[in-house]
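Task: encode each sequence below as structure tokens.

Item 1
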Amino acid sequence: MSTTPTAPDHTPAQASHHAASPHRLQTGALLIIAFAVVLFLLVQARFMLISLVTAIVIFSLMSDAISFIARQKVGPFRIPNWLASVVALALISAALLTLTSIILAQINTVLTTTLSYTDRFPEAMAAMVAWMGADVEQAVFNSASTIEVGGYLRQMAGQASNLMQGTVLIILFVGFLFAERVWFSTKLTNFVGDADQAERVSRIIGSIIHRVNYYLLVKTFVSAVTGLMIYGLALFFGLELALPLGVLTFILNYIPNVGSIVATVLLTLVAYVQLGDLGQTMVIFAVAGAVQFTNGSVIDPMLMGRALRLSSFGIIISLAFWGAVWGIPGMFLSVPIMVGLMIVCSHMPALRPVAILLSREGLPEEDAALPKPTTDATAHGETSGGQSAVAPQAPPSPAPTQRQDLAS
């Protein structure tokens, strides 16, 4: 009697697949836990992290300016790096404190004036839909009456009071970054352990700084022009809050896509509550919308060119995520953070698919597009004695020497 040989239950490939499955599940679970922990820390330490990220952005903006100042000569003497840093820090501190004071003053003016109009808010909202019939007008009036406008405004005032504390913390962070600036190159080389790799990392950081700086400069110019035009429009129609509305428009335009919509709606509501004329309000809304569309959708992209190269959908996702994590400050910082994330991912093979999704055309930055390393010593900062801060890098890094000893 012959017996048929029984096939094994699992082939070697199937066995390895089953063995890898628990490992994949464990890796996925660890990634989820790590993301949850990071998200928890981002929320809990939001005040400090927002101040730190803002300080890094301001430092990157002023770093090139300090290098330029340090290269200048007054007669036979060159301006030392420490003096340029002190002057830059003093100017930054004065500008931040002045800007914060102006913003707080305008916010308080808007909130105080708006609170005096809160009683008229339900009637104004109902009158805007009166053409739809008495039933709709009454329904809108009842709904608007249930909205605690005063409570929301007082909550916003409480959040604005933290602005001055954040400004002081940002100034402290920027000061310490300036103090450590001259040793960044040396620390980076010793940390990486490879001069070529350190140079590549430095070029990636330089690309991030260049793009963020260009974005902020263009955004500041376009936002300033838009704020001035909205101020002129409000002044022409005799609105009491013309200057605060112009300042808030300038600030809100730093929030991509959403900021211009909020600024236009705010202007329209203030105009209707104060003027009480639907015709004039619609004219203001149309003109303000045309200004925002022209500056935001025509002039801004034209000036920005290919410098940003971010996906519009990615910007919305980043805006929603950082807005949920850090609130309004997160919305302001969403684009700079996304720029840095896209550039870093584009130069890491494992994360390059993320950069492809974040880029506009699906063509993230290549290594060849990185800025060339500068040969000017002052580009990395100089010590007070005029020597290059990268002078300690002259001896070779010990890491390659250790690898050679191990190989021998």
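Item 2
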Amino acid sequence: MSRYRSVFVGAVLVGALTFVAGSTTHGQVGAGLLDTNLVPEAELVAMPGMTPAIAKALIAARPFPGIVDFNTFLVGQKLTKEQIDAFYLKAFIHVNLNTGTRDEILLVPGAGNRMVREFAEYRPWKTWGQFDKEISKYVGQPETDRLKKYVFIPVNLNTATDEEIISIPGAGRRMVREFKEYRPWKTKEQFEKEIGKYVDAKEVARLWRFVVIQ
């Protein structure tokens, strides 16, 4: 093999390895959709079905523990189904792929009974690569990518990468430091105690939704 051919083949192999390595690194929380528990009041008012009064009531009630609770709130505020559906195209409360209930999954726009079955069938979900492989068999990759915006795979507190921690809505660099500082994590009580030094109890509860100790 000539020197130039060797260089070319080597470059191709390096590029391929870089692509493969890059493709296995994913945040664990679906990107591309606002987290309802974090949207500023000024942005909420501009969303479908919102009024200044509803936005203030929404903020006072946050954080919502899940999308079912939030949906109940919106219904209580007299939003129509069409307004709620339109709101969910802008903001949502992500559903845990490994524990999400039928009622939660059915609130994901376009999920339906089929995704109730498929989301449950492949548990435990561990990576977005697994999600892409299994769900795209039924609906194709573009729809899989859309569904991905509404769900999350819990981040393992003891092994999560910086990127995985940053994928948690509102976590930021501070939580990257704190999550890693207190390893090994052993209990929810430990999490509440240590993270509670930096944020209030409501924020601790909101962050806890996205993590798991393994």
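Check on item 2: Confidence is low (pLDDT under 50) at residues 1-26. The first helix runs from residue 3 to 23.
End of task.
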